[in-house]
Amino acid sequence: MAKKKILNKKSIDFLEKYLNNAAPTGYEWTGQEIWMDYLKPYVDEFITDTYGTAVGVINPDAKYKVVIEGHADEISWYVNYISDDGLIYVVRNGGSDHQIAPSKIVNIHTKKGIVKGVFGWPAIHTRNKAKEQAPTLENICIDTGCKTKEEVEKLGVHVGCVITYPDEFHILNKDIFVCRALDNRMGGFMIAEVARLLKENKKELPFGLYITNSVQEEIGLRGAEMITHTIKPDVAIVTDVTHDTTTPMINKKTQGHCEMGKGPVVAYAPAVQQKLRDLITDTADKHKIPFQRAALSRATGTDTDAFAYSNGGVASALISLPLRYMHTTVEMVHRDDVENVIRMIYESLLNIKEGETFSYFK
Question: Residue 133 burial by CB count (10 A; 0-12/13-18/19+): exposed, middle or buried?
Fold first, then answer.
């Protein structure tokens, strides 16, 4: 495939709509509906499960099954305690960062609709300069403007309500995508674009392709654990995000070197099947797709682990998108990297030959 721009206006419009919609862990269904609606013209059928993982399938009757996967959920908070004076204390739903919370606007999701609030923080004038307190789960709290617990409850807020940030998608310097939840709705977006390209370019695959948008990755790869036993794939190519390590306060000696704009990151880890990884890197070399490498100790920390160690072992690989400021509301990726992840997956799929390749993976 020629190296022309992959993303078009329809793609970007879908990305913006998909990102701006809240889909916290355990509550991904509205995002999944948006994703499935976009994917519908490019697949033959859908599979969904009890917890909300969505799978678009091409060639559902084929003998061999290949998964391309991202995860759909975003980090969030739960209401944990409402004080008598109407302040709301929280616990994490996924890896939410308490240090970025102060001064952030939040959406509290209730049966009555969205209730707005703010993570308040004492003014600089009132804090003890000699003993500055850092934000912790014990001292950050949400203010909805209510004076009492009863006022808060009348709004529909109760323990267990999920809380998200409303920060929306925007583009910096023409090619830099910024939003909360790029981790990892970019994955769902990129695999959907692979399906679009296969359809538009009229490519026929000699296997079944399962475009999988898993739920609940942020709390332990749970959606992938469930859906892999439903699909029982032969091969899984997983995409997630990884850290751009060129920003301040990151030690490259421990985190490695990865730079936004320099290409997808191919993982080296025990869960990554070497022959599948080599097929991907050889494909990238052949098509002059730039890529980087990362070594991951023990586990990848992504849905790759769930697929690799399921069903007696599934040949799995991980292609990551370099990202700055992970688990904040200003996560940042480069358009070129997004397009090259899409291109890398697309060309790798076209390089998988039915009988020869699948026996090679064994």
Answer: exposed
Per-residue pLDDT tens over the stretch 259-276? 999 999 999 999 999 999
65-71/105-110 β-pairing: unpaired
Q: What is the DSSP letter of 74?
A: B
Looking at residue 348, what DSSP letter applies? H
Tell me the per-residue pLDDT of 215-237, one tens digit each, with 9 for 90 and over: 999 999 999 999 999 999 999 99
Task: Tell me which residues are annotated as active site.
Answer: 217
- Specify the pLDDT at position 360: 72
Cβ atoms of 29 and 42 within 8 Å: the answer is no
Neighbour count for residue 170 (Cβ, 10 Å): 12
Structural domains of the chain sorted by starting position, each given as residue range(s) with its CATH number in brackets = 9-74+180-360 (3.40.630.10), 76-164 (2.40.30.40)
CA–CA distance, 313 with 304 (Å, rounded to integer): 11
What is the rounded CA–CA span in Å between residue 228 and residue 214?
10
